[in-house]
Design a protein that fits this description.
about 140 residues; alpha+beta; eight-stranded antiparallel β-sheet; 8 strands; about 25% helix; globular
């Protein structure tokens, strides 16, 4: 964790446990099954369930559509991803993209009301706060 500013000290650890799967040829594959180059940096961003809000499927679907459009306007080629809670059946549709800096990915996440985004690089999954100064990593 870097800096301070974590209002809920355990939230980063909760997010870090998320299992991320990315579409590969029409099939979702967990990170551990993907061949990701050490030089690749992938950001995973969702528009679903901003902050503590749970707006429902229709609003989440609309946010997902808007996020896709924003990512395309940034010059990215979004690939479907899903973040799943390993302790429940909760999952959120997301987009995996390359070509963004951490600060830009966090700014986009913040624009969609997200607490954090994910970065996948160097064999690690990192959760980065959109507003604040913390990040946590683990190998995948």
């Amino acid at each position: 964790m870097r800096g301070s500013g974590v209002s809920h000290p355990d939230i980063g650890a909760v997010y870090l446990a998320t299992v991320i799967s990315i579409d590969q040829g029409g099939q979702l594959q967990p990170l551990s099954m993907l061949e990701i180059s050490r030089s690749d940096t992938i950001h995973i961003i969702t528009g679903w369930n901003p902050g503590d809000a749970r707006p429902g499927d229709e609003a989440n679907t609309e946010a997902d559509r808007r996020l896709h459009a924003v990512l395309v306007s940034e010059g990215c080629v979004p690939v479907r991803a899903i973040g799943s809670d390993p302790a429940s059946d909760h999952a959120e549709l997301s987009w995996a993209v390359t070509g963004l800096s951490d600060s830009r990915a966090c700014a986009i996440g913040a624009d969609f009301g997200q607490v954090a985004i994910f970065r996948v690089s160097d064999g690690h999954q990192t959760v980065i706060a959109c507003s604040g100064e913390w990040e946590l990593s683990r190998p995948f």
